[in-house]
Amino acid sequence: MRTREHKDRSDICQTAPFALLPTPFPRKLFEQAVKVQNLIATLYHEIAYDYDFLIDCHKEVVKTDSFTKGLIDILKKVRDEGLAQRKTLAIQRSDYMCHKDQFSCEYTLKQVVLSFY
């Protein structure tokens, strides 16, 4: 976050104060999150390299969204010219919460955030 002294500058910042406290989390749901994360990572990897699928899914969006059109144009160029290198790196993050149903009192796993870097 920006400092009081430099409110108008984004290159000078400080970390926001926060506290992390240990919180019990059901092991069954933790293990479920670990298992599903591997499946999600594989799914996103497969989708990322299915160029025709991505182009088809965005065919209506590119008519009105210039940013997405630019990304699809880059994708088409990569598809036509081939990858410059064979190795890729994907950094993915998924955040989950433990949800307690108010009627059955059972706990379920809820995905709240999915990020790509």
From TrEMBL:
Alphabetical list of InterPro entries matching this protein: Glutathione_synthase (IPR005615), Glutathione_synthase_N_euk (IPR014049)
Family annotation (Gene3D superfamilies): 3.30.1490.80, ATP-grasp fold, B domain
Single GO MF annotation: ATP binding
GO CC annotation, single: cytosol
Protein name: Uncharacterized protein
Organism: Ancylostoma ceylanicum
